[in-house]
């Protein structure tokens, strides 16, 4: 755990050097690979001053990432200089770092290795001692005020959020296809720039989608077919709809607002991580990592076990719920019903 910081920062360096896209575009042979010198020449060609990278250092970065299966590494006989013996190609991991990949993880990578998480998590011990968000200790304001104040950081955050949403929603719209059939109006609460609701409406064009978020977020949202962007605060009012769609950080107050917004036969659809009970499994580890992030960066946000979800559903006035787990993911679809 102590040395895990090196891996994402090495990935970031490779993306900043455009290495995944260079290999994807120019890689040759059966393995679609390039030599260190070939990669270096393309990096130089793309730089503003056409400066070539240091070949040995480039090789050492590629070799390190190849050891974690980020790139393939093939060698051949000959070559007095060590790096001349190797060629590097893409794997399934590095393909997720290319620009042409619909589900590119580059936005999440830049958000995870940026200023906000690094500085915020430095104060995690004070969160534990004082019960306050580490983010507020680091930046002197809560996350939402910070993103309003610093639009560039807000853009990094919301790009990552949109990219993560696309990956999760690709599974949601497939697994939950029948669940959307009887919904005519659907409001996505805290929907960001509309990534999730647009994917739902695209697959179910009979639905009128409403994307609710704070004004400074909606101001950056693109026009989307079948989606109405609404400026507002989910703690104050949620537009009426047949169903409400929620992602992450739910609480009793928001669920009560959802109850007010939906008819008696309506429902709330929550997509969130459920902390697994099995100690040490990958899904539990991911859910608990999300929980630490919520603890550090939000005021009272948390991930929950099924038992904890059941408790807040009851407190918010809901009678029953149904859980559908998404494959190969810590996330689940939770349908909540009034009756």
What would you note in describing this structure?
33% of the residues are buried. The strands form 2 sheets. Strands 6-5-4-7-8-10-9 form a 7-stranded mixed sheet, with helices on both faces. Strands 1-3-2 form a 3-stranded antiparallel sheet. By secondary structure, the protein is an alpha/beta fold. The protein starts with 5 loop residues before the first helix and ends with a strand. It is elongated and about 75 Å long. The mean pLDDT is 92. The protein contains 16 helices and 10 strands. Helix 1 packs across helix 6 (106-112) and helix 6 packs across helix 11.
Summarize the structure.
Helix content is about 45%, strand content about 15%. It has helices at about 5-15, 20-25, 35-45, 55-65, 90-95, 105-110, 115-120, 125-130, 135-140, 145-150, 150-175, 195-205, 215-220, 250-260, 280-295, 305-315; strands spanning about 35, 70-75, 85-90, 185-190, 210-215, 225-230, 245, 265-275, 320-325, 330-335. Helix 1 packs across helix 6.
